[in-house]
Fold this protein.
Amino acid sequence: MELKPLRTVELKIADFDATKTFNCGQCFRWRQLENRHIGIIGHSALSIELDDIRQTKFNVTIYGEDLSDEALYTYFDGARDYRNILERLSKKDEHLSAAIHEGEGIRILNQDPFETLISFIISSNNNIPKIKMSIEALAEKFGKFIGTLEGLDLYAFPSAEDLHHADLVALNVKAIGYRAKSVKNTCDAIVLNQIDLSIPFKLAYKEAQTWLMQFYGVGEKVADCILLFAYGKDDAFPIDTWVKKILGDLYGVQSGYSDFIKRYFIDFPGIAQQYLFYYMRNRKV
DNA sequence: TTTCAGGTGGTGC
DNA sequence: GCACCACCTGAA
């Protein structure tokens, strides 16, 4: 059953490039079609027309379950003035300046904590195409069917209960490998111990990082991704092999990363990280 | 057929 | 606290 549009919202958010935002490694469930992006938030399917970054607004069409304008605005980080932040970061050095020029329009999304937690557990020692495969397989197998859009069957991300009730063999979906155990372990802990995933919102960055690392399969890097992409912690600066290369090659930093990051990127480490990451990934050097 | 990419957890010092 | 290795699989 092809989904019928519920309504279209005009979001007044400037400096937004959907293609770059969805392709900078922070989210895994947006798909690019010929002339639009299709994504899933909760039990809603969304469609965004391919954009012109010079616009100060864009249209989002909602299908399936409704979603408040406020929820959309928050998801796209609408309250933040990127222009001002990026201008300040650009002045720091030529690398940041080039990275910000190239990544213009990237915004850091505020995604669902549980979905982000599980997605980044799956991301460990893994690459983006495989992460997407596993997440789609989990959604198709354990998530609620939302409907069909442009011939695509869309499923909600499963809940902790959904995954808690699945056994390890069933969780061993395409490309997930040994990470199924971490997903299982984490969902069991959340359901059995009634863990409240809103807790990190109230904690300072370092405390929130330690809190997230209670989950099996969550180390420093994965915790930082979750903090940045779900909890809005701008201090988080996920260091993967690419970022390690950036810090080494561009800044000559081989160790003591956190001191350098705090000292150098002062107010917006997470935003600086996203732009540098996108820049490095696209240079293919 | 083999090699490679990619974080975490566990072990041993 | 650091060095090392196992873990798994799609793609090249």
